Amino acid sequence: MDTWKISDDLFCLRSHNATLPKWYTQDVVKELDSLKDRLFWLFFTDQEILKLVAGVFLKDAFDRLDDCVYKSTSESSCSESLFAYSAHDTNVAALLGALGAYTAEDRPQYAALVTVELLAPSASDVPPDGGYLLRLHYKRGWRDETGSYVQFGACRDREAKEGCAFAPVRESVAALLLTPEEAEEACKAEWLPSRYRLIVAITLSTFLAILFVTLGAVYCVVWRQRYWQYGQQGGNFGVGSHLPYSPLVSSPSTA
């Protein structure tokens, strides 16, 4: 079970002044928050998880940014001033992680907000990216009234408020981008991992072999018993009375 679901449920109960369990003390609150911070850090610094959680959004966002940065005015469809996306805290954390801006203290709270600003170049800037800058602003939750600028992982040597050149940021996320079709394919779960298939096949084959041998043995015993009984009753199987004694199908002779 996801630990943060427990924490979220209890937070909602507390926010609505509902009756809380007696075991829900301040120490438990701190312990759950600490554990939740660690889980978010583990999940959203893992490249494969980031790709699956944020890859489709990043592809859409950077396709739009590419359109503004690299195409001429006549070719570009970049006419909007703002693109807004709604998301959960896990999506926000994954976005920050993909951009190299997530830290253990940055777990999104309710009403968290990430803003990516595309800054136009000055007249002296030249291609390939025309001097465009990206700047990242993060409001951590409803208690954080103003938020602050945070720096992209591609520009650790610059102040966050100075932003980062578009090209290195674009390059840093290139391996994470996914189309919706690629994401659907990547998220398909195998019925059984390939490394376990041979083990299951051998186990199943052994079980079936034992089952068939057991059924065959039972059939032989039953057939032998009936054959012997028929011979004892003077049936056509006259040789039945001459069968050797078997404790499984007959009683020893009392004569």
Automatic annotation (TrEMBL):
It is an enzyme of class 3 (hydrolase). InterPro entries: Acid_Pase_AS, His_Pase_clade-2, His_PPase_superfam, Histidine_acid_phosphatase. Its EC number is 3.1.3.2. It comes from the Eukaryota. The chain crosses the membrane at residues 198-222. Pfam families: His_Phos_2. SUPFAM superfamilies: Phosphoglycerate mutase-like. Gene3D superfamilies: Phosphoglycerate mutase-like. Keywords: Disulfide bond, Glycoprotein, Hydrolase, Membrane, Signal, Transmembrane, Transmembrane helix. It catalyses: a phosphate monoester + H2O = an alcohol + phosphate. GO terms for molecular function: acid phosphatase activity. Belongs to the histidine acid phosphatase family. This is acid phosphatase. The lineage of its organism: Eukaryota, Metazoa, Spiralia, Lophotrochozoa, Platyhelminthes.
